[in-house]
Amino acid sequence: MLTTGCDAVDDLLLGGFPPGIVSELCGVAGSGKTQLALQLLLRAQLPTDQGGLDGRSCYMYTDSLSPLKRLNELAQNYKNDEVSLDKIFLEIATDPMQLLNALKTRLPTLLDRHKVRLVVIDAITAVFRGIAVDSAADAGDRSKIMFEMVNCMRILAAQYDVVFVVINQMTTNMTVGIVPALGLAWSTCVNQRFQLAKVKNPSFRSFKTIFSPYLPSEKSALFEITASKLQ
Ligand code: ADP
C-alpha cells in the first residue's frame, strides 16, 4: 500500500493505494489531482514502515509543463536524503502514440531494471484533446488506442505489482452535467475511480470513492492542500 500522507484519505482507502491495479483520480481543474500525484511520487520512496514503497517512481506527463518546480516545493517537506528527485523518472508524452509507445517500451524497462514501484499518468485525457473525431472510423481508432493503453496499464500493474495511478479530467455532458472524461467504456477499464473536488474552504479538497472492487462507493474524506504538503 502507498499512503497519501493525508490521514483521512488513507483511512478511506483502508491504508493507501494498493499495488497491482489501476486507480483513476478524476476531478475538475484545481481539485488537487496533480498535487496529490506529485506527493505520491515522493512518498513512494519512503520505507514501507513509513507508508512508502521503498522504490522509485515514474511520472508520465502529457502537457509540456515540467513538474520539477512543484516537486521541489513538496520535497522541502521531507528530511534530508529522505526523498530525492533523482528517484523520479519523468517521461513526457503529448500525443496518443507517444504515450502508447512509452507504455509498451520505456515503462517495462523502468519496471524491470530500476525498481520503479509507482507509475503516474497525468493526465490521460490530455493526449486525446485536440484530436479530431470526425467520423465513426476516427472514434473507433481513438477507442482502439485507448483500450490498448489501459490494457498495457493493467497488465504492467499486475505483472510488476506496482501502484498505478492515472489522472482523468472532467467533461461536460449535455444531459448529465460535468462527468469524468473518456466515457463509459474507459470507466469500465480502470479498476477503481476516485473523484477530487473543491469545497467551500479554499484550503481543502474532498476525495470521494466513485467505484472500487473493495471500498464502499460515495464515501468521502477531506484533505488540506498547500504548496508544500497535502495533509
Ligand atoms: P488539478 O491537477 O486537479 O488541476 P492541482 O493539483 O494542479 O489541480 O491543484 C491545484 C492546487 O494545488 C492549487 O489550487 C494550489 O492550491 C496548489 N498548488 C500548490 N503548488 C502549486 C503550484 N506550484 N502550481 C499550481 N498549484 C499549486
UniProtKB/TrEMBL annotation:
InterPro entries: P-loop_NTPase, Rad51_C, RecA_ATP-bd
GO biological process, one term: telomere maintenance via recombination
Cellular component per GO, a single term: replication fork
Domain RecA family profile: 1-170
Record-annotated membrane-spanning stretches: none
Source species, domain of life: Eukaryota
UniProt xrefs under Pfam families: Rad51
Example of a GO MF term: ATP binding
Record PROSITE patterns: RECA_2
Protein name per the record: DNA repair protein XRCC3
The organism's taxonomic lineage, starting at the top: Eukaryota, Sar, Stramenopiles, Oomycota, Saprolegniomycetes
